[in-house]
Design a protein that fits this description.
With 136 residues, the protein is an alpha/beta fold. Strands 3-4-5-6 form a four-stranded parallel β-sheet, with no helix packed on it. A two-stranded antiparallel sheet has the order 1-2. A hairpin with a 6-residue loop joins strand 1 and strand 2. Helix 1 packs across helix 2 and helix 2 packs across helix 3. The chain is globular. About 15% of the residues have low confidence.
Length: 136
């Protein structure tokens, strides 16, 4: 397995990671087997999210007994405020049965800002098109 440093975090991660969405379709026992197989293959990065229904809970159960320390664990939240994010972090930590998570992704908040800006630009362009100030 090839590894790289994840940005400025200093975390050494496998170039191939595991996304937590498919875990929704299996049970905790299968999840444990998957995690053991990932360790065997050298995969050490897991990405999940609060919105992936049972993914965090199944991962939490599967990673008990020494497997947690073998992974860089990232999860995401749809939180839009600091209080919501703090609440989601606590829920994620409880679901994942860990005292820490390696990464908390704020991608959704950035994406929301980008989409808001895009919508503002789109409205401005539509106004110009309607007024005849801009021609395609």
């Amino acid at each position: 397995m090839e590894y790289t440093t994840l940005g400025k975090t200093g975390l050494r991660v496998s170039r191939m990671g595991f996304g937590g969405i498919p875990i929704q379709k299996v049970d905790a026992a299968v999840t444990r087997k998957l995690m053991e197989r990932l360790v065997e293959r050298g995969v050490n990065y897991i990405d999940t999210a609060r919105g992936y229904t049972v993914s965090e809970s199944f991962l939490g159960e599967a990673l008990e007994g020494g497997l947690r320390e073998k992974f860089v664990l990232a999860t995401k939240s749809m939180a839009r405020t600091r209080a919501e994010m703090e609440r989601d972090i606590e829920i994620s930590l409880r679901n994942l049965r860990t005292g820490y998570r390696s990464l908390a992704m704020l991608v959704t908040m950035l994406f929301s800002r980008v989409m808001m800006r895009y919508q503002q630009m789109s409205v401005a362009l539509n106004v110009k098109l309607y007024q005849g100030d801009f021609h395609l």
